[in-house]
Design brief:
mainly alpha, two-stranded antiparallel ribbon, Zgc:113208, 199 residues, 9 helices
Length: 199
């Protein structure tokens, strides 16, 4: 079933999305929010040559619901061939190359663009496949409750003495988490901070 932007707004648990078939998958940004916030240096849905499928692919962004792209400049913010740090929320560069992801074995033919394609073009809109468990496990290791990047950010915030949402504390990690559909909340920060060892 399709999700509306209001599904998560009505939850009392910190704004997390709830997918009843994958309760451990709790992003708190919808795909639309990730795109609208400014992500991937604007290049995510650029034309690519996929070494996994051995074909050239373009215009995949047209699969997205039109309202997700409202106000965005497609050629600069969605399907640019040039990475632009200033497109990103935190004005920093982060992420690996498509070639790196392909050679790591993380890309499969059904989703040649990788994780965000799985989440936004597909899973979020109701598609389910046998690859979902693997992809959600990747999400959990990155942005989940015990995820490495979430824990990394919380640790840096605790040690900095700054507010949980201070963008000067680890903007690259914040941008990375955003690409995985997650933004640190006060509730998650307080919970995670209990596990941080002070130096």
């Amino acid at each position: 079933s399709n999700w509306s932007e209001d599904d998560k707004k009505n939850n009392s648990d910190g704004g997390q999305l709830v997918f009843k078939d994958y309760l451990e998958f709790t992003p708190n940004m919808t795909p639309k929010e990730v795109l609208q916030a400014g992500s991937f240096g604007g290049i995510y849905f650029r034309p690519i040559y996929s070494s996994i499928t051995s074909i050239n692919i373009k215009d995949v962004w047209q699969e997205l619901p039109k309202d997700w792209l409202d106000g965005l400049n497609i050629s600069k913010q969605v399907a640019s061939s040039t990475y632009r740090e200033n497109v990103n929320t935190y004005k920093v560069k982060c992420g690996g190359s498509l070639e790196m992801w392909e050679s790591s074995g993380w890309i499969v033919p059904q989703d040649p663009y990788g994780w965000f394609q799985v989440y936004c073009s597909r899973f979020y809109q109701g598609r389910r496949t046998e690859d979902d468990a693997r992809q959600i496990s990747r999400w959990a290791k990155c942005a989940g409750v015990k995820g490495r990047w979430r824990h990394n950010l919380i640790t840096k915030v605790v040690r900095s003495g700054c507010a949980y949402d201070n963008p000067s504390v680890s903007p690259v990690v914040r941008q990375t988490l955003q690409h995985w559909g997650y933004k640190l909340t006060l509730e998650d920060y307080k919970e995670g901070a209990k596990r941080v060892k002070l130096r």
